[in-house]
Amino acid sequence: MFYRPEDGHGLPHNPFNAIVTPRPIGWISSRAADGTNNLAPYSFFNAVAYVPPQVMFASTGEKPDRDGTKDSVANIAETGVFCVNIVEYAARDTMNASSAALDKDQDEFTAAGIAAIECETIDCGRVQGAPASLECKLTQIVTLPGAANRLVLGEVTGIHMRDDCLRDGRFDVTTFQPLARLGYRDYARVTEVFELARPDD
């Protein structure tokens, strides 16, 4: 099968998200200029550089009360900071609850019953007990083609790792089984890993 996206795929559901998988989930916490906390999961998320460490996430929708974007992007544009919280399998239901479309003055931490704790290097809350959290300062917001597509890039200024996720000096993802987004309504979790050495190692 071949199709051009502008012509449509002819399938019951869009296959694009099912093709580009698995995708890590960035559970993005932000704070509005008025102090309102926000928490939302984004599956267009990844690390993009080592030195300095940098990450990205993309927002692809909008809310009526946010002038062409979503709360996370609007908050980050106002304050210049955000935090990426890593989602473990055990938190799948609370992560999903935080994806509800709430008014901009509502706090998803409170609405979903998620404990928040302050970051160290930025003025923002983070998910207490997350396997890892990356405190970030905004470097740029890029407007992408499409009605409400925004790419947010940030430099990591602080890294939290839960002590029980460290084994023999390594951050061991099998201790918490990170949640990954697939296509449609599908998710996966990492339960085992293996190593491959590069030919020039």
Uncertain segments: none
Mean pLDDT across the residues is 96
Query: With helices defined by DSSP (H or I, 4 residues minimum), what is the helix count?
Result: 4
**Domains counted in the coordinates: how many?**
1
Strand arrangement, largest sheet? 3-2-6-9-10-5-4
What percent strand? Answer: 35-45%
CATH superfamily: Electron Transport, Fmn-binding Protein, Chain A
What's the total number of strands?
14
Shape: globular
Structural class: mainly beta
Q: Which architecture name does CATH use?
A: Roll
Largest sheet: 7 strands, antiparallel
* Text of the CATH class: Mainly Beta
Helix share of residues?
10-25%
- N-to-C span: 39 Å
Topology as a string of helices (H) and strands (E): HEEEEEHEHHEEEEEEEE
Features:
single chain; 201 residues; mainly beta; Pnp Oxidase, Chain A; seven-stranded antiparallel beta sheet; three-stranded antiparallel beta sheet; 4 helices
Describe this structure in words.
With 201 residues, the protein is mainly beta. It has one domain: Pnp Oxidase, Chain A. The protein has helices at 16-19, 71-79, 92-97, 108-111, and strands at 23-24, 26-31, 37-42, 45-49, 54-59, 81-86, 116-118, 125-127, 132-143, 150-161, 166-167, 170-171, 179-181, 187-189. Strands 3-2-6-9-10-5-4 form a seven-stranded antiparallel β-sheet, with helices on one face. Strands 1-13-14 form a three-stranded antiparallel β-sheet, with no helix packed on it. β9 (132-143) and β10 form a beta hairpin. The radius of gyration is 17 Å and the shape is globular. The model has no long low-confidence stretch (mean pLDDT 96).
